[in-house]
Specification:
With about 250 residues, the protein is an alpha/beta fold. The protein has twelve helices and eight strands. Strands 1, 2, 3, 4, 5, 6, 7 and 8 form an eight-stranded mixed sheet that branches.
């Protein structure tokens, strides 16, 4: 399958969103709101939940499905408040020794003037620094689009997993084509050059696991993913110094 075909699948409105994973994998989910500075960002859903018998913090970038939902969620493009809310929950997780699971699906952080005025770049950069030093296991799963700093702001983790048809890139194929070829219609060509597929990421070591989508959205799919996350958290916790390993993982790039 061509890279741009994967992009189209990753963007599909019929694809399970972060809330689909939260509702089918975790129980007793309690959502938290607000960054304690300005407002709540609907593009990021964050809270505490149970993963089997394990208490965890779950943070997901939610795109929504219907036109109304996507508008409310700003199409999954988070503002500074969203990243600050996520960090607030991650620091809380560290305080109570809860593992953190993030679900990433965004074309990129919101690039509006008001977001820049409120410190979008600073908020993402702070997350990168703080997540690198967070003293609890972190698993990040790319469930759709993984666009630029908007994705990376929630993906500094001990394990980064990708769905089979998810993508991970510093820029969208259309944006890359506009810069390189002066023609956004050459997005398919740009997608091949960018090496943005899960298979590419696995070959480069950017991801440790590519999750099959043969049964995506089914009960068995969520059950298996739940088991995998649970077991991986136990594996990470058993490692002598997973925080140092996390640092070395990203320094290697």
């Amino acid at each position: 399958m061509k890279a741009y075909d994967r992009v189209k699948i990753a963007r599909s409105s019929s694809r399970p969103t972060a809330l689909s994973y939260i509702n089918n994998i975790f129980t007793s989910f309690i959502e938290f709101h607000g960054d304690r500075r300005a407002k709540d960002d609907e593009a990021i859903v964050a809270g505490i939940a149970m993963l089997g018998d394990m208490s965890v913090t779950v943070i997901g970038i939610e795109k929504g499905r219907t036109a109304a939902e996507r508008t409310m969620r700003n199409f999954g493009s988070a503002s500074p408040e969203g990243y600050r809310k996520a960090l607030r929950l991650m620091k809380q997780a560290e305080k109570f020794n809860r593992p953190v699971i993030t679900l990433v699906d965004t074309a990129g952080a919101f690039c509006g003037v008001e977001a820049e005025e409120r410190g979008e770049g600073e908020a993402i950069a702070t997350n990168l620094v703080e997540m690198m030093d967070l003293n609890v296991p972190i698993i990040s799963i790319l469930i759709g689009e993984g666009g630029s700093g908007g994705a990376l702001g929630l993906a500094v983790a001990d394990r980064v997993w990708m769905l089979e048809n998810s993508v991970y890139s510093v820029i969208s194929p259309e944006g890359c084509a506009s810069i390189l070829f002066k023609d956004s219609k050459k997005a398919a060509e740009a997608a091949e050059c960018l090496k943005i597929t899960a298979e590419d990421a696995l070959s480069f070591g950017f991801t440790e696991k590519v999750i099959s989508e043969d049964e995506i959205g089914t009960e068995s799919f969520y059950r298996q993913l739940k088991e995998d996350i649970y077991n991986e958290i136990k594996t990470i916790r058993a490692e002598k110094d997973y925080k140092e390993a996390r640092f070395k993982r990203f320094r290697a790039f």
